[in-house]
């Protein structure tokens, strides 16, 4: 058999066949060499990404199957890079949270320890001064409780553990009730509350407890930073695609940087103010309010113009509200 094959290849016809085989092998290597080289490039890119170089991108030289593989490798690297950035941001946020909480807890605790030591050592001149120490200590405990409550609420809202119970509510009536309860506090601080909407029912799907907390936070924010005497205006309107609610007040002007950072947790636009209400603030009120509205499928923002602050809320109208899009929430009719 082998002898016959050699005779064929060494014959005249066999010589031509041998040339064809050689030419085929030559062109095969010539054509496949770029593919092999490109596969080596893809392999090197994958190894580089696997070793931690997430900035690595492989070249895309064609739109065939190998080009699709290259695109997928680059997409994988981009997603890994975004994931790592998010992880780093979460770690930074955790450290900032610990730092801010430690500072905000230490401040009232230090004052409480100071006042308690004075009373423990009978270091007061008369009963009036003793009462003042007791009142100051009580105020600091209230501040501490509010900070812990706000921190707990903020953590629940941002961790996905919050359970919201939605039901159909007349927002007009609910806002009027909130205003009536808030009016005595506003009156004590020379503030008048005005409402701007028609006497009609506006229905929305809300978690009543969380929604009331949101409006309370906005009203307390307006109370702290309004000019006195002054007024706080509450607006309600039913737009084509959403329900619009706003709380407006006039106060000290702020910078563009302060405006952009107002919804950041623990951020206080006027840390130099030393009034009682500002000292009670946790710096979490607006962040909590914004998170609650986002869990309702809405949005919250600020329109600011020359000392006028308008914190607005946009909630989905009943026809646009779909509870099924959000996990961990229930709806009641």
Automatic annotation (TrEMBL):
Report the main location listed first in the record: membrane
Which UniProt keywords are given for this protein, alphabetically ordered? ATP-binding, Cell membrane, Kinase, Membrane, Nucleotide-binding, Phosphoprotein, Transferase, Transmembrane, Transmembrane helix, Two-component regulatory system
- Write down the Pfam families for this protein, in alphabetical order: HAMP, HATPase_c, HisKA
Q: What is this enzyme's EC? A: 2.7.13.3
Q: Which InterPro entries match?
A: HAMP_dom (IPR003660), HATPase_C_sf (IPR036890), HATPase_dom (IPR003594), His_kinase_dom (IPR005467), HisK_dim/P_dom (IPR003661), HisK_dim/P_sf (IPR036097), HssS/ArlS-like (IPR050398), Sig_transdc_His_kin-like_C (IPR004358)
Q: Which PANTHER family has this protein been placed in?
A: HISTIDINE KINASE (PTHR45528:SF8), SENSOR HISTIDINE KINASE CPXA (PTHR45528)
By what name is this protein known? histidine kinase
Species assigned in the record: Paenibacillus sp. SYP-B3998
Lineage here is: Bacteria, Bacillati, Bacillota, Bacilli, Bacillales
């Amino acid at each position: 058999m082998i002898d016959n094959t050699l005779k064929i290849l060494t014959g005249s016809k066999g010589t031509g066949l041998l040339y064809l085989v050689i030419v085929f092998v030559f062109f095969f290597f010539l054509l496949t060499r770029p593919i092999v080289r490109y596969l080596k490039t893809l392999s090197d890119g994958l190894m580089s990404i696997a070793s931690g170089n997430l900035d690595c991108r492989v070249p895309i030289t064609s739109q065939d199957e190998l080009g699709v593989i290259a695109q997928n490798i680059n997409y994988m690297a981009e997603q890994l890079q975004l994931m790592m950035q998010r992880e780093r941001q979460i770690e930074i946020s955790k450290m900032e949270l610990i730092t801010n909480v430690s500072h905000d807890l230490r401040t009232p605790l230090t004052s409480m320890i100071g006042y308690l030591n004075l009373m423990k050592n009978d270091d007061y001149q008369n009963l009036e001064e003793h009462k003042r120490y007791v009142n100051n200590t009580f105020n600091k405990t209230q501040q501490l409780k509010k900070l812990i409550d706000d921190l707990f609420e903020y953590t629940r809202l941002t961790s996905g553990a919050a359970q919201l119970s939605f039901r159909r509510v007349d927002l007009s009536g609910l806002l009027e009730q909130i205003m009536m309860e808030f009016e005595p506090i506003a009156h004590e601080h020379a503030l008048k509350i005005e409402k701007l909407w028609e006497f009609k029912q506006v229905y929305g799907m809300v978690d009543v407890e969380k929604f009331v907390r949101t409006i309370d936070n906005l009203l307390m924010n307006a109370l702290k930073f309004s000019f006195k005497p002054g007024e706080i205006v509450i607006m309600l309107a039913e737009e084509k695609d959403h329900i619009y609610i706003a709380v407006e007040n006039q106060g000290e002007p702020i910078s563009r940087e302060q405006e952009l950072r107002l919804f950041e947790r623990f951020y206080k636009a006027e840390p130099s103010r030393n009034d009682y209400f500002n000292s009670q603030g946790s710096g979490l009120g607006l962040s909590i309010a914004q998170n609650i509205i986002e869990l309702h499928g809405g949005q919250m923002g600020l329109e600011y113009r020359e000392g006028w602050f308008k914190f607005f809320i946009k909630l989905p109208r009943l026809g646009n509200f779909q509870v099924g899009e959000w996990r961990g929430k229930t709806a009641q009719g």
